[in-house]
Automatic annotation (TrEMBL), chains A, B:
Source superkingdom: Bacteria
EC number(s) stated in the UniProt entry for this protein: 3.4.13.19
Record key words, sorted: Dipeptidase, Hydrolase, Protease
Gene3D superfamilies for the chain: Metal-dependent hydrolases (3.20.20.140)
Top-level class of the enzyme under EC nomenclature: hydrolase
Pfam families tied to this protein: Peptidase_M19 (PF01244)
Name of the featured protein: Dipeptidase
Molecular function as annotated in GO: dipeptidase activity
Amino acid sequence: MSKTMLTIDGLQYSNWSREIFEQMREGGLDAVHATLVYHETTRETLSRLGEWNRRFEAWPDLIMPVHVPQDIAVAQASGRVGIILGAQNCSPIEDDIDMVEVMRDLGLMIMQLTYNNQSLLACGCYEAEDSGITRFGRQVIREMNRVGMVIDMSHSAERSTLEAIEISERPVIISHANPESFHPAKRNKSDKVLKAIAESDGLLGFSAYPFHLRNGSDCTLTEYCEMIARTADLMGIEHLGIGTDLCQNQPVSILEWMRNGRWSKDMDYGEGSASNADWPRPLSWLRDSRDFPNLIAGLRKVGMSEDDVAGIMGKNWVALLERAATRQETAPA
Amino acid sequence: MSKTMLTIDGLQYSNWSREIFEQMREGGLDAVHATLVYHETTRETLSRLGEWNRRFEAWPDLIMPVHVPQDIAVAQASGRVGIILGAQNCSPIEDDIDMVEVMRDLGLMIMQLTYNNQSLLACGCYEAEDSGITRFGRQVIREMNRVGMVIDMSHSAERSTLEAIEISERPVIISHANPESFHPAKRNKSDKVLKAIAESDGLLGFSAYPFHLRNGSDCTLTEYCEMIARTADLMGIEHLGIGTDLCQNQPVSILEWMRNGRWSKDMDYGEGSASNADWPRPLSWLRDSRDFPNLIAGLRKVGMSEDDVAGIMGKNWVALLERAATRQETAPA
C-alpha cells in the first residue's frame, strides 16, 4: 500500500526491536507515543532514556526522537517513525517538582499523573476512592503546563481526571482508553470525563487493548469504528485519535511489572484474573503495526469523510501536541 | 538531680552533636525516638543511617542504637541514651514493599505513613481531603505488622488514621501531637482518633512544640501537665507518653526542608506563616533535654501518682515497643 495519510499511534509499549520499527513503517506509521516507563524511579528512567539513545544511534534510518511537535513532519518527510516518549506514571519525577522540567528537557513529552493506584499527584482508577488532585499534584500540573509536558489521565480515577482538567490551563488527554458506554471497565471513561476532555481541547486515543473492548478479543473492526463515530458526536471529531496500547513481543513478566510494580507482595492481576493472567489474545484485524491500514479502511467504511479519517489517524494528534506540548513563553522580567 | 526514673522522649529531631547527647544524659533521658528522615529517598536514608553509624562509633560512651525494645534497659543500665530511629514519612520505602523489612533490619523501628501531604500509603493532615489508606498502604501496614515496625500517624489526616488503626493488627501510635480539645491545630487529634489509638493499645506522645500548644510558646508547665491528666481520663494512663518534638540547634533551612521537601516551588510555611516563618520561641520550662526533670515535677504537681508519672515518663513507651516493635513469629511451613 502506498503511503498517503499521516498516521500516529498514541500508545504502544512493545519489546522494541528493529523488526517492530520496520513493522511500523510497513503499516505507514509516522509517529508513535512510546511508553518509556511504568514505575521506574528518576534514576531508572534515565537508564530507559539511555536505551532509547542507543536505539536512535543504531537505527537512524528507521526512527528519530520527537522533542517538539514539528519533529513529526520531519519524521514523515524522511520516511522515519518519530518516537514521542511518554511515562505511564509520575514515578520519573519521584517527589521532586524540579524533575518535571529536567524530564521534559530530556524529551519526556507526555506523563500520566497516576497508574491505577494512588500516586503523590492524584488517584488511579483501581483505588476504592478518589480524593482528587493533591497539593503536590496542583503544583506539578502548573509546572507541566509551563514546560509543555502533556497531562495524560488514561489510568486515573474520575474525580482526579475532572480536577486535573479544571486545574490545567492547557488541554488534557486520555491517550489510550475507550468510552465506558461502549464497554464498562475501570479503565474506560464516562461521558462526563470525555466531554470535559473535549472542552479542554484535549484528545482521546481509542484503545485496541482487548480488555477495553466490547467482546474483548472478538471485537470486530466495524464495532471499533462505530464506537469512534459515536464518540465523535459526543466529543467532536477533532478531539479523537488512536492509542492502540499495542504491547508486542512482551513476556508475561512485563505485564506483571505493569500491574504489580514493587508495591504488592500478592499477585495483582489488574484487568485479568488468576485464571486469565496472561496477555489477551490479539485482535484479528490489528495483529501488529502492519495492520494500521485496516483502521483507515474501517473508518471509511462506517461513512467518515476523508478529512475526518485523516484527523483521527494522525492530524488531531499533531494539533494536540502543538496545543499542549510546547513550552509556554514567559515574559522577560 | 539523681537519676531514678526511666525516661524516654518519643520524638526529637535535633542537630545531633556530642553536646546534644550530653544534655540528654543531664536531663536523665534513657532513650530518644530520633527522627532519621523527613523526605529522604531509600538511598538518601541509607546515608542518614551511615551518619548515625558514625555517631555510634564516635560516642559509644553516650549513645547506642535500639534495635529491639530490650536495648532500652541495656542503655539505662550502662548510663547511655538509646537511640530509637524513626522516619517521619514513608519516603525510605519509596514504592517498594520489600523495603519495609530491609529498613527494619537496618534499625528503623517507627515509620509515619504520611508527612502532612498525600503519600503513596495514606493522606496527610494538610490535604483538603482524605480518602483513607491506599492499596499499597494496606499491604505496607500488614508488612509493618509482620516485621515489627511501629505505625506512627502523627502527621496523618483523620480518616487515614482511623483506617490504619482498623487495618493494623498491632497497636498504632501518635508519637508527637496533642488533643485538639486542648488546642485546635491541623496536627492535633480529635477525641475520636485518641480513643481509637487507645483501643488499639497504642500510645500518644504529648508534643511540646509551641504550634501544638494552647498559648503557643507561653503555654505553662501546669497547663501542659493538666492536659496530660485530662487525656488520661480519655485514653487510659498506660497509653500516654512524651514526644516533645524538640528540634535543637537546627537552622531555618531544616524547617523549610520539613515543610517543603522537594514538592513545592512556592514556599510552604506549614504551621507558620510568611510573617512567622522561623522556629517558634522555646518554652521556658523545656529549653532543651536538660529540662526533663521539670516534666516529672509538673506531673507530680497536678496530683499524679508515682506509678502514673513513671508510666508517662518512659515505662509506657517501653511497653508499647514490646507490643508493636517485635517481629511476629511465623509458623514454619
